[in-house]
Structure formats: structure tokens, C-alpha cells
Amino acid sequence: MLFKAKASPEEKGELTAAFLPGFAIHGAQELMNQVPQLADLDAQDRTLDLLFETFAFFMHLANRLAFRELGAQQCSGFSQQMLAAVADRLMKSLGASYSSVQVISLLRDKYNERENYYGQFRQLMPAPDQPKKNTVLWEFSKVIFDEFVGTDDTMDLILVDHILAMEIAGFLGQMKEVWKR
Fold first, then answer.
1. The pTM is what?
2. Closest CA to 60 of 28, 16, 91, 6
3. For residue 35, what are the CA distances in angstroms to 32, 59, 149, 151?
4. Helix (H, G, I), strand (E, B) or coil at 43
5. 3-class DSSP state for residue 76?
């Protein structure tokens, strides 16, 4: 065979799940390291909540790109496989601290909740000369500060954008490679 067959949507979901956890975990760690209010999350469960939020954010980015690249019908297979594979990888990294059923259920619920919420916003990120408001990244920043700090100070929200910019750029670069397969 001269040409390799293109990867199926499910295979692309699996490929995405191979690198997505690294970006989500590193993003959550950077937020906790660089945002003083997040550095002191008081309980392991709150840290896990932050981790679920970052996973849901990166999975939403991947799903949005999949919808654009694959269309609505094939996007479903991508999303289902990505979610299952990401949950499996997250479970392995957490070890025996949590039940797999609990982690998968919590991650799926958070992903579905954020998929519905972030889906309301057309732009992922603002153009250089445009305001950040009403973009997915801005809304993620609002979720983080509302959920974990109880504020919506604009400077705090801009800080989250700045902290995650490199993670998002790296993630989008990896996603480009997935679409080439």
C-alpha cells in the first residue's frame, strides 16, 4: 500500500488523549503556582476540582477543533473516545486515591457542563486588537476565579489568560499534528 489510511475520528480522539492530560495538569499547576489565591487551595478535593476544570477546558478546545475538522457526525466518535481515554489516563495518574467510577463520572459531568457553557461563545481567543470578553478563554478565567476565589477582578482574569497562553499554544500545535493523520 502506497498511502497510509487516514486515522479515524476515534483514533484521533485517542491521539489527543495521549497529550491532553499533560497540558491540563501543567496548566493547573501553573495556575496554582502563579495565582496567589489558588496556591492555598484548602483541600485535595478542591485541587481535583481545579484539575477537572482545566481538563474540561482543554477537552472543549479539542472538541471544538474536531467539530471544525470532522463535522458533527464524526465529531461524536472523536469526543467519546477522547473522553474515555482521558478519564483512563487521569485515573491512572491519581492512583488508588479515588474510585475509577467516581473520577470518570465527575470528569464526564464537568466536561458536559463546560461543553454546554463554553459552546455559547463563538471565539476561542480574541484577535490581537479585540477585547477578551465573550471568548472561551475569558470565560474559563471567569469560571476559575468565580469557582475558586469568589471574584471577577479584571486583572485576575487577565492573569489567567497570560499564564495559560503557552499551554494553549502548545496544545493547539499538537492538535494540528492530529489533524494531519
1. 0.91
2. 16
3. 6, 22, 10, 13
4. coil
5. helix
CA distance 151 to 148: 9
Hey, what's the cell of 128?
490581537
Q: Tell me the backbone φ, ψ of residue 123, rounded to 5 degrees.
A: -95, 135
CA distances to 71, 117, 142, 167 from 136, rounded to whole Å, are: 20, 9, 10, 15
**pLDDT tens for the 181 residues of the chain, in order:** 455 568 999 999 999 999 999 999 999 999 988 888 787 766 566 788 899 999 999 999 999 999 999 998 899 999 999 999 998 888 887 776 777 788 888 899 999 999 999 999 988 887 788 878 889 999 999 999 888 888 777 887 788 888 898 899 999 999 999 998 8
List the one residue out of 68, 144, 77 whose CA is nearest residue 110: 144
The C-alpha atoms of residue 130 and residue 63 are separated, in whole angstroms, by 24
Instruction: Say how far apart CA 49 and CA 72 lie, in whole Å.
Output: 29
Rounded-to-10 torsion of CA 83, 84, 88, 90: 10
Cell 478519564 found at: 87
DSSP characters over 97-142: GS-HHHHHHHHHHHHHHHHHHHTT-SBSS--TTS-STTBHHHHHHH
